[in-house]
Amino acid sequence: MQIGCSAPSSGPLIGPDSLVRIATEAEMLGFDYVTVSDHVMIPTSIASRYPYSDSGEFPSGAAAARLEQLTAATFIAAVTSKLRIVTSVMVVPHRPAVLTAKILATLDFLSKGRITLGIGAGWCEEEFIAIGAPPFAERGVVTDEWMMVCKELWTADEPKFDGKYVQFKDVLFPPKPVQQPIPIWVGGESGPAMRRTARYGDAWYPIGTNPQFPMDTLNRFKVGAAKLAAMTEKAGRDPKAVGLAYRVSSNPEAQPKGTVDGERKLFTGSAADFVGDIKALRDVGVTAFDFGLFGPSLDATVDNMRRFRDEVIAKVR
User: pTM, whole model, 2 decimals?
Assistant: First the structure.
């Protein structure tokens, strides 16, 4: 089982010294990976609905300072030696396909194989427009083609591709990633995200708090996992080939213990509740969990990480 925590990519903790401290502390404390989120530029006026809040409002807004995800991941890789880095998630259409493949291959090569590629199709139409990404309405098919491009460039000795958006031939693409393949975790809880997972994902990577597709109780998650297994089999793949990961936005005590339809709401309450939830989901087949452990300052964040190590990680390993 892998347990991770978030590295800051926006807000007051993104300074180089803070980022180094959090990443190296995570490695020293025995976390298996850190996650890095992805927004290039947030417009000041957003009509698009953020999927993971009841209000639909993006919690950090446009004003927060932001790091570019893959650059931050490279920085973290350079100051650590064992810690894996998970893109959580990379909005695939935000970057050109071939450039994305090159950056990720380089990052995996230089980190000696420590990258896990969490992917998503994106939710903020205004951001797509602002950065000149492909049309928002086409983000699903663009995501799938970009991933096919990456896999071709990462594996073929003489890669070639003739798609709707990307075409190339008579090219070489060394160095290849160390990992063959780079693991792909597909984020999202909707039908399209699950179908994407079933077709080519190495793991499904939902967040439990999507109001439209909640995975916030054990039974709801079990239903989702069973649905995914059926979709994977229908896609011609062995369901056992697709793992399960689970992302939690908060740390223990951040939300009071709650219930949904008479069933306890996952990852609310105390550290002991978190321990029970990890064990219950582990029994369902979840093999990776990550948590947002940020506090109001660097010291508070490190304290949260240390308490989580002592009160949660030590009880589930």
Answer: 0.96
